[in-house]
Amino acid sequence: MNKNLKNSSGFLVAISASPYSQYLIKWTCETAAKRKSRWLAVYIQTERELTKEENELLKRNLDLVNQLGGELIISMDDDVPAGIMRVAARHSISHIVIGKPLGYKPALFRKKDIIKTLIKLSGETDIFVISEQSIRAEKKPFFLKLLSGAVAVNIRGYLLVSVWLLLLVVLNLFLFNYINYLSVGFIFLAAVTVVSLFCRRGPVLYFAALSAVLWNFLFLQPRFTVYIDHLEDLFMFLMYFLSAFIIGNLTTRLRLNEAFLRKREKNLEELYRMSKVLNESGTKDEIIQKSTGLLKEFFSAGLVLYLNDENNSLSMLPFNGSDFALSDDDWKEAFNVFENRQTLFQTQGSGYCYIPLLTGSIPLGVLAMNLKDKGDFTVEQQDLLTTLVSQMTAAIERNEYNITQQKIKLAEESEKLYQILLNSVSHELRTPITTIATSANGLIDDELGKNVDVRKIFADDIIEAADRLNRIVDNLLGSLKMESGRIMLNLEWYDVSELVSAAVKKMGKILKKHKFTSSLDNDLPAVKFDFRLMEQLLTNLLYNAIMYTPEDTFIHLNVRADNDDVVISIDDSGPGISAEDKEKIFDKFYRSRRERAGGLGLGLSICREIAEIHKGTIIYEKSRFGGACFTVRLPLQRDEIKENYSE
Length: 647
Known about the structure:
Helix content: 40-55%
Number of helices: 19
CATH topology of the domain at 485-640: Heat Shock Protein 90
Structural class: alpha/beta
Radius of gyration: 43 Å
CATH class of the domain at 485-640: Alpha Beta
Shape: elongated
Distance between the termini: 73 Å
Strand content: 5-15%
CATH architecture of the domain at 485-640: 2-Layer Sandwich
């Protein structure tokens, strides 16, 4: 048979509360494994209530699906073949497996022959009808079969509608003195509609058929016979009989569909609430706390959660927030579930159900729910609980994956940053250190040391190199402090002119190589800032202008008051900044490809950090001299500046 199987997206086996289903499940699992294909099992729940024996058998079948690694789907539909085909279409299944018990014969008068109907609806889907000779249904004596059948069809419902019908007949016999038999027929017909709102299809159809017979026997002429005298009464009786059956059948089907939709809506609402909570949770602990809280709310039962430890084994300590702790014997049961990766809904007397938190590799843990006061879960509850736990597990796994990815990304960025910093620092330190070493050797040289002018040149070179080293160290330390967010601001009121004078003086001789000018507005207000940081900002901007403009070109510093701000701008007449670099010049360690001079790429990024610490801004514009213009705005109102930047 397998040679004829076409390539498919999976197998779907239809199961029920039958001993044959276990063989079908195993056959489907083996066949799918040979084909290296996925397989699913579907159980279609109908309106018929299962007996206790059937419920236990169904649970064993569902547990077998979980044990063999199949995906279990539980759907509600009064039409079993249509429900199977709907699930198959939704999951793109092209092979459906269904059982044929030994001695199967198509039923002529049964409501629907499942096998024949399924084949009719299958279209291009392959249907495999499997039978097993060794599985035979247990033969019962006729009276036991009749008794079990009565229980299966809920004899209580038939007795109840019989009582209602008896009371209705008494009422109609009384009313018959005042109304005719047609009105009595309408009362019976209305009663069928009312009964169908509360009872299942079987009792409703029983009520409809018996009410038609009693209407004929008690109210149609000749009374107290089943004979109908007039042709129009015969047509009326047949129409009543047909209408009662149609109304009863349709109303019960509508009521059943409504019940199915209510259950489905409730399940969807709970699934949506779980998804929403999981999406809003940021950490692993938050995911577990919120999801377990919802599980306790949905199922009104206490639970305990055991997660795996650093050795990927099940921890013996329950997770914080658990309602109780398992005994040693119950924990061993949970450990077996963890090791075997199999859900256990039925336990021998412990009253717990165990669900592993399954992932692609090692389970994340085991969730145990207390059923001592609730009894065993129904099939629908089992399916819902399994789905909700799967959602929780997926959220935990996704959170751990994101954390791992963040660590990997951080490690990669740290390595990249380390290489950039190492290369930049080694390059930048080598130049001033070489200058200092060369100048120092020149100073101690006997011949060169006799020349006063040469000694002065060497001393100036050492001072300039030391200043450059100072700037490099200041920028590195400033960057680290900014990154850590632990800068303590020493805020005082200062005159901006003092800041300009200090920065210009610090730049010293290298600024004299350019045509430097400055202009400050009269009556500039005092501004509250950290003098050391603002001096570093201004010297970095001046140094940037000096390094990127030719000697003997213009550099202009302007300070003015603009409404509630003090504006400091530095213009130069250099080559300016390209459109490609404009968006990145304030990024840390960024250096333009066209850059001629050295540098770590930290100066402008530190300037931006310092400006933002003081609640100000810094922007780049094209200078009126054709080069670059950097403008710093500092607000005059300083109350909002935090004394401790780490807050």
